[in-house]
User: Fold this.
Amino acid sequence: MNNEAILLYDGVCSFCNSSVQFILKRDPHGYFRFAAQQSDTGQKLMKDHGTEHVDGIVLIEGNRSYVKTDAVVRICRHLPWPWRLGAALVVIPRFAREFAYGIFARNRYRWFGKLDSCMLPTPEQRSRFID
Assistant:
């Protein structure tokens, strides 16, 4: 298993930014690094992994990329108890997970808001962001 993963998130989505903060607080070993999809680095990584048209999160582990609910399941596997239980979503058929994710993704700005710009990490968090 790799000792690091890169999470590409929607940098102007309030929910996505809150999710990054949630993961940062529960990832004391620094497994996850982060880049906004809107950043130059995020755009390059998405293009390199063939995920530039994905409307949702992208997780890169080694040479593999995972999108949407597959990314969520992989993220949960690396979080501490009880958040690790989220990996159990894998038992739900992918078509059903992706259907629900699609509804959420289409409505995330309406439900949670949209930021004018990407968040700026604190000095302590800066090393976890790659752009």
